[in-house]
Amino acid sequence: MVYGSEFPNSSFVGVDISDMFPQAIKPPNTTFTVANVLDGLPFEDNSFDYVFQRLLVFAFTRSQWAIAIRELIRVTKPGGWIELSESDTEPQRTGSVTREMSQRVTHALRARGIDPLIARSIDKPLILHDLEDVRTQFISIPLYWGGRLG
């Protein structure tokens, strides 16, 4: 789905740390900016009605998550919405090989200060900032459960 085309009366801003933005499909109400949320986003306070961030589970240490969330709150208008979508990296119903690989990856990430299970507690910093209507939802995506590899 190309959101800009679906909502022509809205404007959309995509932000990434590197310039890997789509070139072929870009609705006229969509712009892209290279920025790092940890360095501060190049937007005024209270700029956006809706802020969406996803799949940064391996990008931030636990202390960096607090910085990123504060920055998302800063650029969101009062009464606006922040949505965070992160993966829980603990596989379920795995085989012995996948379980061992997952344990090694988890150990390596934690050694770097990264919490591979941050999705389970991502709501805590939002609650600490007194945001209203903080909700979480867990959705399981089965990927061949069972067998030696899992």
UniProtKB/TrEMBL annotation:
Residues 10-82 form the Methyltransferase type domain. This is Methyltransferase type 11 domain-containing protein. It holds the Pfam family Methyltransf_11. InterPro entries: Methyltransf_11, SAM-dependent_MTases_sf. PANTHER family: METHYLTRANSFERASE, METHYLTRANSFERASE DOMAIN-CONTAINING PROTEIN-RELATED. It comes from the Eukaryota. Signal peptide: none annotated. It comes from Jimgerdemannia flammicorona. GO terms for molecular function: S-adenosylmethionine-dependent methyltransferase activity.
